[in-house]
Design a protein that fits this description.
The protein is built from 1 helix and 31 strands. It starts with 7 loop residues before the first strand and ends in an 11-residue tail after the last strand. The strands form 6 sheets. Strands 1, 2, 3, 4, 5, 6 and 7 form a 7-stranded antiparallel β-sheet that branches. Strands 8, 9, 10, 13, 14, 15 and 16 form a 7-stranded antiparallel β-sheet that branches. Strands 17, 18, 19, 20, 21, 22 and 23 form a 7-stranded antiparallel β-sheet that branches.
Length: 423
């Protein structure tokens, strides 16, 4: 059976290096209750395996803490992927946190994985920070080729071999084997291709953006290029945090991004990225002729110590769902959900089955996409389990953020394209 977007019955999870020996959390949420089986490779250390593998009944949500030893090591084949299988569809979010740094991502179910991905990371602010790529195989004998794009054309040495910009690194992985690449320059635009479907992740072990604040762990599970959209609405961050919007083309395309009703037309070549920045009271609308990947980087607050960099892949309007069930992490001063919904349906939106009157509104505005008016609203919410839905079945986009002193996280409700069969 297939489910919409980021809901599914099987997921493969990994944790890239974060430089902080973080607490590695997995949150699983179910609409109706499920049986869950968590398993690891038969080649994983026996003691480590015994701490992870389990069968659990989930009535509504489950919180799993993964041993820090499951963090990946660069340039080494390891068996550090975790397989999650459930009896019905669930949402899965990972959240790696330690004081002063955090990284979160929505997990993409295995049935949505594919064989080609484009990498997103950021230019390391200092030499000790690294950009990262990580992959894991679903089946044995999976060959993976990574065409390396290096912003500063700095050579990379792997196993004694020197790789330059546009060189291809090859590796073969068996089921639940992992491999991580790191570099001291931005790897955005690198291409990952494989002989069989894989899960791919990218980001930075820690980075400071725009020379303000401190560093945070940046990680996203990458959607396959065949699951990208052409039209996106990027909501702002709150607490005077600006947002860097990065648009990455998969094929050459004409596109327009619009901020405050001012459009800017751009011709982009394949695997090239183009960025812009919006304030905490602006919306960016991206409309492209061909599919693109849009990533939002929340920046440190301009007026307080709240927040640090966060990285979230933005859902396209054709990736919106009509129901989400998530866990808002604990330990943050402010947590927010942003919704992007057709204006005509805005009154049908519900949180935990109720209208949103009790939730403080931090931002709201209208924006036109094509000839359709959308309503964008950011609400402050409390931590814990949260369902978001519409009473009339209208689909909407959902993005979640949280911040405290020198720390911020972000994840989207969905980043997998819904196909014409509705899943």
């Amino acid at each position: 059976m297939y489910f919409e977007g980021s809901r599914g019955e099987s997921f493969v999870v990994l944790f890239m290096t974060d430089g902080a020996s973080s607490t590695k959390n997995i949150y699983i949420t179910s609409e109706n209750g499920v049986q869950m089986n968590i398993s690891t490779s038969e080649h994983l250390d026996t003691l480590l395996k015994s701490q992870i593998d389990r069968v659990v009944t989930i009535p509504s949500n489950e919180h799993i803490i993964v041993p820090t030893e499951m963090e990946l090591t660069s340039f080494k084949k390891e068996t550090k992927a975790i397989l999650i299988e459930t009896s019905d569809d669930v949402f899965v979010i990972t959240h790696a946190v330690r004081r002063g740094t955090v990284g979160s991502t929505t997990q993409i179910p295995i049935h949505k994985l594919s064989t080609k991905y484009v990498v997103i990371s950021t230019e390391p602010a200092v030499l000790s920070f690294k950009s990262q790529i990580a992959v894991t195989a679903i089946e044995d004998n999976t060959t993976i080729a990574v065409t390396l794009k290096m912003m500063r054309h700095i050579n990379l040495t792997i196993d004694g071999n020197i790789y330059q910009n546009n060189d291809v690194f090859n590796v073969t992985l068996n089921r639940l084997e992992t491999y991580q690449i790191e570099h001291k320059t931005d790897l955005t635009g690198s291409i990952i291709e494989s002989s069989k479907p894989i899960a791919a992740f990218s980001g930075n072990d820690c980075n400071r953006l725009e020379n303000i604040g401190a560093c945070d762990y940046l990680i996203e599970q990458l959607p396959p290029v065949n699951g990208l959209d052409t039209t996106y609405i990027v909501p702002p961050n709150s607490d005077d945090r600006y947002t860097k919007v990065l648009i990455t083309a998969v094929n050459s395309t004409n596109l327009t991004y619009t901020i405050n009703s001012t459009p800017r037309a751009v011709l982009m070549n394949e695997y090239i990225s183009n960025g812009t920045t919006i304030s905490s009271n602006q919306i960016c609308v991206v409309q492209a002729e061909n599919p693109v990947l849009v990533t939002a980087f929340g920046l440190h607050s301009k007026s307080s110590k709240l927040g640090d960099p966060s990285m979230t892949i933005v859902p396209g309007i054709n990736q919106y769902l009509d129901y989400y069930k998530i866990v808002v992490p604990t330990g943050y001063d402010h947590n927010y959900v942003s919704i992007m919904i057709k204006h005509a349906a805005k009154d049908s939106f519900r949180i935990n089955g109720s209208t949103t009157n009790k939730y403080p509104v931090k931002f709201e505005s209208n924006v036109t996409v094509g000839n359709i008016k959308y309503y964008v609203r950011t609400l402050q919410v409390t931590d814990g389990e949260l369902t978001a839905s519409t009473v009339d079945g209208e689909r909407f986009g959902l993005m979640v953020t949280g911040r405290k002193n020198q720390e911020a996280y972000g994840f989207s409700g969905n980043s997998a394209l819904i196909n014409k069969q509705g899943y």
